[in-house]
Amino acid sequence: MKIVENVIIGIVQGRLSPPINGMIQAFPAATWKEEFKIASEIGFQAIEFIFDGPQNPLLDPESRKQIREIVEESGVSICSVSSDYSMHYPLFGSTREETLKLTTQLIQICKSLEIPRVGISFEDNSSIVNEEHREEAISSVTECIKVAEDSGIVLTMETSLYDFNLKEFFNRVSSPNLKVNFDLGNSCALGEDSPNVIRSIGDLIGGIHIKDRNRFFGSTVPLGEGGVDFRACFEAIKSINYTGPFVVQGARGDDDIKTAQRYLEFVRNHIV
Fold it and tell me: How many other C-beta atoms lie within 10 A of the C-beta of residue 238?
């Protein structure tokens, strides 16, 4: 089953390096350059860059020159930047102004590097749990989307909002540059009927994370070992004519490289 022509399969930055301080996901400061070469050798076409703090090389002009050179040399593109910073420091409440400033700066930097997507998060510490959060989040995203539209950047949003609340959020912001980053594993863990959700919000999806989790808030597990019905999900993805990247964000294994190779093959087998 071919979903799209020239499909892009990427991997989240850090999954090709040893974990940092026991964390599942963090910017690999010591090895980020090498990851592009490794990704190319394995067969990934893209990397999702992680932005989790002000010390990130994306904020440094000289480092951005290095990023351009590494992308060109490796042939591995940056399909998106995931602002994990926004997951820890929400775009609402006391951290709103600082995170908003960094997010708009990040969008402009991505324009200069020809990175097409910036991902923001409304999960974990940034979950929208009340009306005040929602109104501030909508206001923040509206400000970000003005910069994204001017920069030709798509802003993807990862959230645990159910589809009816999600559609209202999108109607309020009202921009073709705002999309959903749909995480298969997180949807499963919320107990959703993921294929139906994919079909329901179809044209809002601008990015997909390939992850597996056990249902009802279960932990992340190796692809194919949890509750995600990948066959049904990929059939739903095909039905909405999705043309964006598939980014692997699976559970870590004992050998990061072999695990990434296995995950890449897993995704390829479900796409074709």
Answer: 15
Residue 194 · residue 188 · CB < 8 Å: yes
- 3 state SS of 46: strand
Alpha-carbon span 130 to 133, nearest angstrom: 5
Contact by Cβ (8 Å): 256, 15: yes
230-239 and 256-271 helices cross at what angle (nearest 10)?
50
8 A C-beta contact, residue 207 and residue 182: yes
Give the distance, in angstroms, between the CA of residue 139 and the centroid of all CA atoms in the same chain: 22
Q: Which domains does the chain have, with CATH numbers?
A: 9-271 (3.20.20.150)
CA dihedral 107→112→114→117, nearest 10 degrees, is 0
For 35-80, write each residue's pLDDT tens digit: 999 999 999 999 999 999 888 999 999 999 999 999 999 999 999 9
Strands 46-51 and 117-122 turn out to be unpaired
Q: Give the Cα separation of 199 and 206 in Å (integer).
A: 13
Q: Are 50 and 13 in contact (CB under 8 A)?
A: yes
d(CA 55, CA 112): 19
For residue 261, give the H/E element and its range.
Answer: helix 256-271
d(CA 247, CA 7): 11
pTM of the model: 0.94
Q: What is the pLDDT of residues 191-227, one digit of tens each?
A: 999 999 999 999 999 999 999 999 988 889 999 999 9
Of 234, 232, 241, nearest to 204 by C-alpha is 241
Query: 125: which 2 tokens?
Result: 């510490």
